[in-house]
Amino acid sequence: SYADIVAKADAIRTVAGIRARSRQDDVAVDSRGAITSIANGYGYAEATGIGASIFSFFDKSEGNLTVAHSGTLSVAAATDGFASAYGIQADNGSYRSYGDVSVDNSGMVSTTAEGYSATVDGILAVSRRGDVTVDNSGTLNAAAAAQSFAQANGIDAFNRVYSGDGDYGEVTVVNNSTVSATATAVGISAAAGGIRAVNRNGTAMVNNSGAVSAVATAGNFASANGIYAANRGSRSYGDVTVDNSAPTTAITFPAN
Question: pTM of whole model > 0.70?
Fold first, then answer.
């Protein structure tokens, strides 16, 4: 897509500027235009700028998922219930998926969600057994505001593999631009993550040379991580590596 896209939903409450899906074969998205995606509704609202997925539950899939974005993404969701907003959502994490996930962003991504509960990801990249690679050179801003639970991540890359799946992919995030995540909850909890690279059983690596900030404000519990890299599997195979050469900020505040 080289043209501008505007998607808005009030009654439907689920909207995406671009959505590309497959059951087994490759999915590739190349977007260079401006995308605006807005969802408003009662009870539930979900807005996605670019949503790409391979879903294979019964049949084995070796398809790879690739997203390249160099335009502008403006994504917003608002409701009195559960709100979620995703700038780029690349999901190859279904039960029978073996393919890789690659996201290359050089554009500007702004994502916001507001509701009783709010979840926001600037870039969300998920695999099950394959590699997950995120290369970001664009500006990312992710902000979640909620009455009870708020979660915001600038980049969230993880491998969903379990110890019994056998094949372990690598999770790699390379960032050289500004990433900002802000989560605010007047009620129970808020969590903000600038860059997250998590593997269940395999290598997790972050190479960062851009300014990263994470700010969380909550009435009860607040957590903030500028860069979070981890191996959290039941057997925990694989190294965890972080190479950071830029300012990284993580701050928590109590809600007034």
Answer: yes
